[in-house]
Amino acid sequence: MLTIAWDVDDVLNNLMAEWLRDKWLPEHPGCGVTFEQIIENPPERILKSTREEYLESLDAYRLSGKYMLMPPNSETLNWFQASGDKARHIALTAVPLKAAHVSAHWVMKNFGKWIRGFHFVPSFRTGKVPSYDENKASYLKWLDKVDVLVDDNPENIQQAQNMGIRGILISRPWNKSSLTLKEALKELDALILSKENHD
Q: Residue 169: beta bridge partners?
């Protein structure tokens, strides 16, 4: 059985779009940036802000209670409902330590039927945090259990593939994925079927 590691934000949910609509734009009414225009992540240049201002806003959103109210990505949830029991699943996300408990709660609330482990690499913020892994690739190397990484960050996908882990890049405005989400999930189905046929 395949073990699939899922990024959380902008894969299992639509954090960037929800945060932009519910937090950033109401507080910056002159901004006018649409989700489709966020072709860089982090997007501070597009938002005409500083990195610190962007991260403070995103973290405030995570801790405000609105994060917990976010619906899961409907296509991803539908895939889990149809195919989730055909593989093992873990969450692997980069999130600030102060908000990791919120992310874990959200994952278990919405995907706990299938995802049995929550793992994270703390996103850099000010203050000292023990650093066991500098990125997802080093965590995956230590874990040594994952067959497929599903992520929206092309660098994470490339690093995983360099280690022999299959990468599926979820299409977002800030990456150059040639696959729609529907196509990416179909690719997952094909990988699961191939594994079943070889076991």
A: 151
For residues 35 and 43, give the distance between their C-alpha atoms in angstroms, rounded to a whole number. Answer: 10
- Both tokens of 107, joined, read 């994952």
Same structural domain, 92 and 184: yes
Task: Compute CA 80 distance to the chain's CA centroid, rounded to the nearest angstrom.
Answer: 15
At residue 145, does pLDDT exceed 80? yes
* Residue count (the chain): 199
* Mean pLDDT, the chain, whole residue set: 94
Q: Give pTM, 2 decimals.
A: 0.95
Beta bridge partners of 166: 148
Residue-range definition of the domain harbouring residue 7 = 3-14+71-198
Per-residue DSSP letter, 7 = -
b or e along 23-48 (b: 16 or more beta carbons within 10 Å of the residue's beta carbon)? bbbeebeeeeeeeeebeeeebeebbe
User: Which sign does the torsion angle of CA 65, 80, 158, 174 carry?
Assistant: negative
Number of domains in the chain: 2
The H or E element that residue 47 is part of is helix 44-47
Question: Do residues 179 and 104 share a domain?
Answer: yes
Report the alpha-carbon distance of residue 194 to residue 170 in Å, rounded: 21
Q: What is the predicted pLDDT for the residue at 199?
A: 67
